[in-house]
Amino acid sequence: MRDEVKTKSQLIDELNQMRQRVAILEPAVAVYTLSRDQLNNILDSMEDGVYIVDPEYNLQYTNPYLMRLFGTIGSKKCYEYFHNLNQACSWCKNTDVFAGNPVHWEWSSQKNRRTYDLLDTPLNNADGTISKLAILRDITERKRTEEELEKHQKHLEELVQERTAKLVTTNEQLRAEISERREAEELFTTLAFNSQIGTYIVQAGKFQFTNPALQRDLGFSEEELLDVSSLSIVHPEDRKRVRDNAVKMLKGEKSSGYEFRIMAKDGSTRWAYEKISSIEYKGKQATLASYMDTTDFLKAQEALQESERRYRLLADNVIDVIWVRDMHLQLTYISPSILKQTGFTVAESMNRSLEDSLTPDSFDQVTEILAEELAIESKAEKDLTRSRTIIGETICKNGSTIAIETKVSFLRDPDGQPIGIIGVTRDITERIKAEEALRESEERFRTIFESANDEIIYVDKSGTVIDRNRKGENILGYTLEEVIGKNINELGSTLSKEQMSTMLKLFSDAMQGTGGWGLTELEMIHKNGSRVFVQASVSPLKKKGGTEGVLIILRDITKRKQAEEALRESEGKLREIFENVNDEIVYLDQSGTIVDLNNRIEDMFGYTRNELVGKNLGELELFSSEDLVEFATSFDNLIAESVPGESRFLKEFEAKRKDGSTVFVESSARLIERDGKPAGLLSVIRDITERKQAEEEILQRNRELAALNAVAQTASQSLNLDKTLTNAVDKILEVLNTRHGGIYLLDQEEKKLTLKVHRGISDSQANEASVLGIGEGNVGRVLESKEPLFIESLSNSSEFAAKESLSIVASEKLQSVVLLPLQARGKTLGVMFAATEHDRIFTAEERDILVTIGHQISTAIENALLYEELQRKEEIRGEVLQQTILAQEEERRRIARELHDQTSQVLTGASAMIEASVAALPWGTDEIKERLRETRVSLTNMLVDVRNIIYELRPTMLDDLGLVAAARWHAEDYLERAGIKAHFETAGRKRKLPAKVETAVFRIIQEATTNIVKHARAKNARIKLEFHKDSLILNIEDDGRGFELQKAMNPTNKKRGMGLLNIKERVEILDGDFRIESQRGRGTQITVVIPD
User: Fold this and answer.
1) Residue 144 in this model has a pLDDT that exceeds 60
2) CB within 8 A of 430, min separation 6: which ones?
3) 644-690 pLDDT, tens digit each
4) Are the beta carbons of 498 and 520 closer than 8 angstroms?
5) Distance of CA 838 to CAs 535, 739, 846, Å?
6) Is the dihedral of CA 911, 916, 917, 921 positive or negative?
7) Is residue 258 within 8 Å of residue 234, measured between CB atoms?
8) Which of 38, 411, 762, 782 has the most CB atoms within 10 Å of its CB?
9) CA distance 891 to 899
10) Vertex 831 angle, CA 829 and 836, to 5°
């Protein structure tokens, strides 16, 4: 019996995954973490728009004010967000800003019809790039105010009119005094030349006279103005209005003063207020004009109005609440921002008392401070500009309270006496939260600081180490105590002199603001003397605009440096391999041009490297045009189906050498990619000319052997004799391309050949030749000679078979036949034959193949015969084993019954008789009584042993109560007596099984539990019976030490016990399935499946 046990591999390959935690702690992150909440609060509260744009025009940030104006940014570009455009604006200033130049300009939005003042500033990022930080202020109202100011020039006009009227009156008086004309003219000239008001005379549209004031204001000389058009100094947009006013005046219509713009010689524009009148000059009508430069006045007026507007806007729109109370603490003014801060309107707030506005504690605090301030006021010497800051809580309209900070001071009359109180109240609720968040942030920073994989060192501006995380002990071996308080100059033992100089320069540059943020590689010395390579980052730590120290981050790159060195060595080796490999290696770019190749090209194709580098494959005559097209198509397919590291093809080509000879090559090409895009092709070309020749010879041989392999494989697929014979005949007929054949097997006892299988012959014809004698016909002679027989023409030979088979030859028109003796290990098994309907010449190779096929089939037939014999023996053995086990069980049952019915009764009776004898003995026989009692105890122990033997032989519970009860009782009694916790379970609907099944299963449980007690050293054992519709499944597990299954089941192992073998045999008798799984340290599991 073949003792084979199927095992299930329990060996699990464990994959060790290396986790590299790279935590880069940049100083900018730390600084930003400390201040980001405060900065966010400032940006969120600003009433100006703030946004950041990168060089690709992507919006990186907008503050809430800007989002209220233009909406959320999403993933928009700046020109999409602000202008709804799909490309950069033609007027965009970003180029100047990204070049590092701030830009200040105005912009009118077509999106919301408002005007903004913009300040664009370059913002340096940590990665070295520049973004644009823009601050946008709405100046729409200012612009509107400027327009309104133009409407309010009457006051100035009246002033100028008044002064001009006086001048006109004076001129009229001079004109009235004809007799004093020269004196008047002299007076006019004096006035004109000395007046600060510009005066000029225009006749026929040209200047005839200009006074110095006009010349000074415009920057022209008198000669430059004379006979020049008066409109040339007027702004083009105002010329029509000036001309129309002059024409009306000359026609006699009343002309009032008006404003217009004049242009100076330097190109600047100024505002002027002008009055004109008609005069006679040199006997002709002319225009006398006087004007006043109002540019400075207008600017002053505009500045005053802008200042007033700003103060009003500040008071009305500031986020903080501005309020004024009289000395009785009654509100006289409060800014509209009170609504946003507390929910009360201005009107509601004006009617609330100070006590109603504050929490009780805050009100008490305010009254106490007010009393202190009033006491100070009573003193002779006091600071009239002093103020107080009060932190308290105010009550909101919804009943909640918020934290506030109020800065208050007295309003004073001209004598310095207090007449009221002014205060600015700020909601600091978020600031308090921010301070708390800041504390939490600092704690998080410390956690990050200590958890970072890099060594982080904080050095003050004197070079003293202030702090360092614990990671430094792993990198350089120095404890925290050995480093803190030391100057970096004292740490020379960790650096060479040159490296220390580099470190000190990095420190100096960072402190001076000329360096930092870069990465420098240093070679340092570990405390134990070993070399350590680190990547150092030295960055300035700034505070309030100054540098207070530097942050040094050291990353251990020793392994990386070692890897780089290994990489350099590897690259050198690869180059050496590239130049010395036997194959030709060619690197082509995407166009098919040869970029590089090794020197093997000359041996393979006869060309030198210089003759081919830079040439395109299409220019060369190495390959045919068809091969070039196929190569290009394969290249294009690689690009289209690009998979990094996997895109490759293997092709064979017929190439032409430089001398015109042919060479066969094999090209293995792989796509080369850079940055995820195809960059070229790496082709390894191998000369396969000799291989092609050898392959042609091998292919011929393979074709001859293919049939042999097919037959051998088919013949060995089954151990069933009939199937083996059938497969063998079918395959050899397929090889010979015929349909007639069969196999005769030798009956050793009868000394006859029997036809076991046939093809292409009718059953009646087969019956006639089904049995042949040894030596009868060609079949018999082949059996005797043990040599194959090839008959290529049956027409020349009538001895194909015995006379009984001649009819087969005639009816099937058979012309040739091959007969092969079937032999195995020197023993003749039979003869296989195949016949064709035409003459056939068998070559030497075919004959060899057919003989080899015969040997293969012979081996298969022998195996099938042996297997049949083994099966018969196994069946006999199984029947004998089953009968033996049944006989054993019956004998066990008989002996158990005899022990129970006879021996147990005798022992029980003897014990009772001794007990009665002890009771009947008279006084004075104590020694006899004691001996009788000892005898009774021995009988009782013997009775227990007899009962245990009865249980071991045949537990009566199995016959009386069935398998489940007997198995449960055995598990709980036997295992727990051995100190093993027993777990007995059942599943499914319990039912009575055949006696032989229940007995076998119970014995299996006994064997398994005995092994557990003797060998497993287990703490727990689990037995489970599962009742299924068509089977019973028994599962037994323990948590013991387990064992090596293969070694334990090996038949050659002399220490192998019989327990598992007994279980296996009992299961096989019931046609069941037995599986066992065990590993050292992992317990053992036995599974038995018994079919119904």
Assistant:
1) yes
2) 41
3) 545 567 778 788 888 888 888 888 778 777 777 777 877 888 888 77
4) no
5) 88, 12, 17
6) positive
7) no
8) 782
9) 12
10) 160
Residue-wise burial string across 98-128, b where 16 or more C-beta atoms lie within 10 A, e elsewhere: beeeebeeebebeeeeebbbbebebbeeeee
Superfamily of domain 696-875: GAF domain (3.30.450.40)
pLDDT score, position 706: 64
What pLDDT is attached to residue 1024? 92
* Residue in the structure block whose two tokens are 């392999």: 709
Q: In the chain, what's the furthest Cα-to-Cα distance?
A: 195
Strand partners, 586: 597, 683
Structural fold of domain 153-302:
Beta-Lactamase (3.30.450)
Cα dihedral 427/428/433/437 (nearest 10): 130
Average pLDDT for 1033-1040: 92
pLDDT of residue 599: 76
Q: Residue 381 carries which DSSP code?
A: S
Structurally, at CATH architecture level, domain 452-562 sits in: 2-Layer Sandwich (3.30)
118 against 599, higher pLDDT: 118
854/790 Cα distance (integer angstroms): 13
What is the pLDDT averaged over residues 440-467?
Answer: 77
DSSP assignment letter at 358:
B
Report whether 829 contacts 745 (CB < 8 A): yes
User: What is residue 152's three-state secondary structure?
Assistant: coil
Q: Tens digit of pLDDT for each residue in 25-49?
A: 343 334 334 445 666 676 677 778 8
CA 172 from chain center: how many Å? 95
The CATH number of 318-433 is: 3.30.450.20
Beta-strand pair 648-656/662-674: antiparallel
CA 733 to chain centre: 62
Cα–Cα distance, 327 to 420 (Å, whole number): 5
Local confidence band at 952 (pLDDT 50, 70, 90 cut-offs):
low
Helix (H), strand (E), coil (C) string for 278-309: EEEECCEEEEEEEEEECHHHHHHHHHHHHHHH
Q: Which amino acid is at 694?
A: A
Domain-wise residue ranges, the chain: 46-139, 153-302, 318-433, 452-562, 581-687, 696-875, 955-1092
Tell me if 885 sits within 8 A of 851, measured CB to CB. no
* 3-state SS assignment for residue 939: helix
Burial class (CB in 10 A: 0-12, 13-18, 19+), 235: middle
**50 touches 134 (CB < 8 A):** yes
Q: Using CA atoms in the order 85, 91, 97, 101, what is the torsion angle rounded to 10 degrees?
A: -170
d(C-alpha 288, C-alpha 509), whole Å:
72
Sheet holding 584-589, edge to edge: 594-597, 584-589, 677-687, 662-674, 648-656
**Matching CATH number, 955-1092, of 1.10.10.10, 3.90.1150.10, 3.30.565.10, 1.10.1710.10:** 3.30.565.10
Residue 428 C-beta-side C-alpha neighbours within 13 Å: 16
Give φ, ψ of 1066 to 5 degrees: -65, -40
Determine the residue type at 481: E
Any idea what DSSP says for residue 489?
Answer: G
pLDDT-derived band at 467 (thresholds 50, 70, 90) equals confident
Please state, rounded to an integer, the average pLDDT across all residues of the chain: 77
Q: Which strands form 130-138's sheet, in the order they lie side by side?
A: 59-62, 49-53, 130-138, 114-124, 103-109
Q: What is the per-residue DSSP string for 490-557?
A: GGGGGB-HHHHHHHHHHHHHHHHTS--S-EEEEEEE-TTS-EEEEEEEEEEEEETTEEEEEEEEEEE-
Residue with token string 């409060």: 334
CA distances for 1003 relative to 872, 950, 1086, angstroms: 27, 14, 14
Instruction: Give CA–CA dist 209/217, Å, rounded.
Output: 15
For Cα atoms 480, 486, 487, give the angle at the middle one, nearest 5 degrees. Answer: 140
